[in-house]
Amino acid sequence: MINDPKQLTQIATENRRQNLLMLMNAPLGHIGGDLSVTDILTTLYFGVLNIDPAFPDKPDRDRLILSKGHCAGALYVTLAERGFFPVEDLSTWVKPNSRLNGHPNRNKVPGVETNTGALGHGLPIGAGAAKAAKMDGATWKVFVITGDGELQEGSNWEAAMFAAHNKLDNLTIIVDRNHLQQGDTTENTVDLEPLADKWRSFGWAVREVDGHNIAEMLDVFQNLPVQSGSPSCIIAHTHKGHPVSFITDQVGWHHRVPKQEEVEKALLELEDIE
């Protein structure tokens, strides 16, 4: 485990470099959401999760489900840097016969817990896994990362009721709250606020964090659950495309792929991050 926020920030920056190059070379992906969730993924995989890349299916591992499966690029880069498969394999992203599909594939990629892509499925699966752990008396934890626009799917709220009813305090949902989805803001599509109060009304213990402040997230994630006997909801306030200036908070970058000159500009900006 890495407990140094500065070191984790360096890893996150390298992950962003790899991600930009990978998507440019394809060219395919969702760079805005990838960059948004990178700090969250880096904090969890390098500083929090009980996992072993040499034994990706060990029974007592923590489970992380990336429900916003269109951001598989960020997940694959993180898994590669963590040692689940060679970093060199990232060059095959979405190529013919590559195991690195455009959405996470458990059957092909070590470290992927479940196939996702159709939104709203991650939390129901995670709730079921957390319930199974409780039934077995196991100590492993379940983490689910969702997009904020994804919360418009009703299946999330069915799972939220189930989790609270069963007191699944081994389950944590992390909402990548960047306020943008495909085509528009979340609020112009379906207003989510007051989001924290919604989760509390469903029986969840809620914390709000800066989703780009690794030190803050590390402190929260390492001290879960937020409240004993209740599932935890962490609303991580982020910016789509962070920290690349011309991508940040721009809805058009939901699934636009950067060209070479744009990637070069972005890489220069990343050099200034410490």
How many β strands by DSSP? 7
What's the rounded overall pLDDT mean? 97
CATH architecture: 3-Layer(aba) Sandwich
Shape descriptor: globular
Q: How is this structure best described in words?
A:
- The structure is a single chain.
- The protein has a single domain (5-270), classed as Rossmann fold, CATH 3.40.50.
- Helices cover 39% and strands 12% of the residues.
- It contains nine helices and seven strands, in the order ααβααβαβββααβαβα.
- The strands form two sheets. The chain has a five-stranded parallel sheet with strand order 1-2-3-7-6, with helices on both faces. Strands 4-5 form a two-stranded antiparallel sheet.
- It is globular and about 50 Å long.
- It starts with a helix and ends with a helix.
Quick synopsis:
This protein is α/β, with parallel strands linked by helices. It contains nine helices and seven strands; from the N terminus they run ααβααβαβββααβαβα. α1 (5-25) packs antiparallel against α2.
